[in-house]
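Re: Re: token formats

Sure, here are both.
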Amino acid sequence: MKKNLMKAAAVALTLAMAAGTLGLSGCAKVAAPSGVGSIELKAGASEGGGAAVTAQWAAADGAAGYEVRCYIAGEGGSEGAPAAEAAPGEDVSGTQCRFDGLAYGQQYTVEVEPYAEGRSGAHVGGEPMAATVSTGAAPVTGLALEANADEAEGEAYVKATWPASEGADGYLVKIEEAGPAAADAAEATADAADTADADAADADAPDAAAETASDKAITDQTAAGTAEAAGTADAPAGTPAADAPAQPGDDADAGADAITDEGATAVTGTEHTFTGLAYGQAYTVTVAAYADGEDGRTVSAATAAEAATGVPALCAPSLTATGASTSEIQLAWDPVEGATGYTLRCGASADAIGDILYEAGADETGYVNGPLGEGATVYYTIAPRFGGHEYAQSEAASATTKVTPKP
């Protein structure tokens, strides 16, 4: 009996050893997967605030999933626990993972380790691979613009200010014209209105032969009154005064196209003033933060805002009139800084000045009125224009044409 029991035990031991050798115990060894090959990292902004890092890698042969860890460069890894400040590790089945809520201006390492899964659920890890990326600087928020015409310097400016961005070593700022200048836009609008009025007048005008002398007199008187009123018209409502800053520009979404160094100015502070600009012009200012790292400069998404420079406070020119000959009167005036043109009016007396004699360009400073009769006396005023609107008129100046001496 005892001999039989010993024989049975020996047989059982032999079978157990054979099963282990042949892998029949249900605990077959699982092969480790291959490495991921390469990792691509991309830094950006986190929807919940802070920075984000997205990792993407090539699939590893034989991998059931991946253990992905993100930690501050030099503080953690496969040989140690991830740093406390970094994002927690992830167990993912795909080939992409995103870590949110990271700090800007920081170098992060992302490590990906593929694994295979045995029947007992245990992970059999493959060779980990790591890559490092900088989160760069946070995008600029709260961009504000102040625009105004600077009379003392004879120029317009736009001043941009913004709060400091996390992780920024400096900022790239750029300014561009946004649409036509106010003067050009107003002139175009005025020309269109004049054309429309002329077309309407042509359609509604009565036959010239049927117009009575009384009707013509009333028409002339009305036209003169309108012209005189136009000479003293104020600037339209909403036109920025030269000594009042324009409203700050609206801060645009921080998702504008990125700025490049080309055409941009690099500053280390949080404000910049653009000078030497045009009066009455809308401008777009774009600002982006940058961070300089070991791999070069990274630039954040750009933030843009728009503002328009004010119009100058145009003063009245100084006008002189001289009888140049028996048929002409020579007019001259001093140029006015910021004027886009001048309107010269005339009349038979100082109280009757109203008819437009000539509309001069911005660079003109003189005009010859003629032909006139001998001994004719004419009174004149001139007003500077900007954006289709007239400003302060000069004091009246008069002159008399020369008279040919009698023999």
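Second one below.
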Amino acid sequence: MFFSFFYSLPLEYESISLYFYSLFLHIKVCDSINIQELFLKIREDRLKLIRQIIKTSRVRSQEELLERLESYGYSITQATLSRDLKLLKVGKMAEGDSGYYYILPGDDETELANNFVQDFVRGFKGIDFSANIAVIRTLPGHANSVALALDTFELEHILGTVVGDDTVIVVLREGASPEAFLSELSLKIPSIKD
């Protein structure tokens, strides 16, 4: 049936919708087919596939995602993919020296927490204290990832962080000891006590 053939075509409805609309009118397949609903269904399926790809693998670029979509029969432009990613509220997560990869909002909290722990451990070199200030040394370029992890952990003893390229300054709350901070941090990152 023509409808199933049409549905299986790789297409980008924004750019060729008029062509298919005129084709439908020309051959008069069925007056009850709502072309707009069909295009929305195709877009919904594409968005589901994008979610699945991002959840199951680390996609690092739009080009990589476009290639994967093509392998499933979806041929779309980079502009359409950008709109889809914006609609899905896709973000990027730092992956140390490897750059970034896409993540979905509200991804499994445990997985996100694990990513922050990995970012912290990957960049962490050492820690020193002076009164209520902790100075965390990181590999060059890793301070942002380490500070973001600390901020995301929402540790009770942290008042705030200041970031350089290879250093994170952690200001501890009044009365918080280095030992109390390390104890709280070790609940998130057990290897910190080593």
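Residues 186 and 193 are 7 Å apart (CA to CA). The first strand starts at residue 91 and ends at 94.
- S.
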